[in-house]
Amino acid sequence: MTTPEPASTFNRVAANVSDFIAVESELAKAELVPAAKHAGIGTGFFAGAGAFIFHALWMLVIAMALAISWALNSFTPLGPWGSFTIGFLLTVMFSLLIAFILIMLGRRQFKQVKKPEATIAEAKATAAAISAALGTTPTDEPTLTAYRPVAE
After folding, report:
1. Cβ distance 38 to 49 under 8 Å?
2. Which of 150, 127, 152, 145 is nearest to 137 (CA)?
3. Taking residues 87-91, what's their average pLDDT?
4. Distance CA 141, CA 124 (A)
């Protein structure tokens, strides 16, 4: 009985892995392309709705500024221009206060973001296992090779 050469065994394994990856990629593509299309269209609709919500909020802020200005003009001796100025300035301050509160809430949420320790450990363990099976040592730095199209 003859022992297969390591090079031919490696070439067979590499070909099988390549075929496996190609089949899995096609399966993933067949599943993900329609889902991504629907997700993109849905995102567009949400963006359109967000634009109209932003417009409605902006109109509400203007209406609030005009209401404050009208009240100031009715109950104070400021006159129309002074009332409009103070009304809009009060509305600006209110908007900035809400923005500051939202920034603080968002900042608190971002501080809770942590790197995926378990995923990183699993990836390193997988790389070490593959390297041990191939008889090489894994490196911490991935090596990237430039894509060169094959001339046909």
Report:
1. no
2. 127
3. 92
4. 11
* Half-sphere CA count of 113, side-chain side, radius 13 A: 5
Q: How far is CA 73 from the centre of its chain?
A: 47
* Cβ atoms within 10 Å of 13's Cβ, excluding its own: 11
Q: Within the chain, how many helices (H) and strands (E) appear? A: 3, 0
Question: Is 45's pLDDT higher than 80?
Answer: yes
Nearest Cα residue to 61 out of 87, 22, 86, 38: 87
Q: Residue 118 has which token pair? A: 């378990």
Only one residue has tokens 């849905």, namely 42
The structure tokens 């070909």 sit at 15
In the chain, where the domains are located: 9-119
Query: What one-character-per-residue DSSP string does 88-143 give?
Result: HHHHHHHHHHHHHHHHHHHHHHHHT----HHHHHHHHHHHHHHHHHHT----SSPP
Q: Is the pTM of this model over 0.85?
A: no
pLDDT at 57 over 70: yes
Q: Give the model's pLDDT for residue 27.
A: 80
pLDDT band at 130 (very low <50, low <70, confident <90, very high): confident
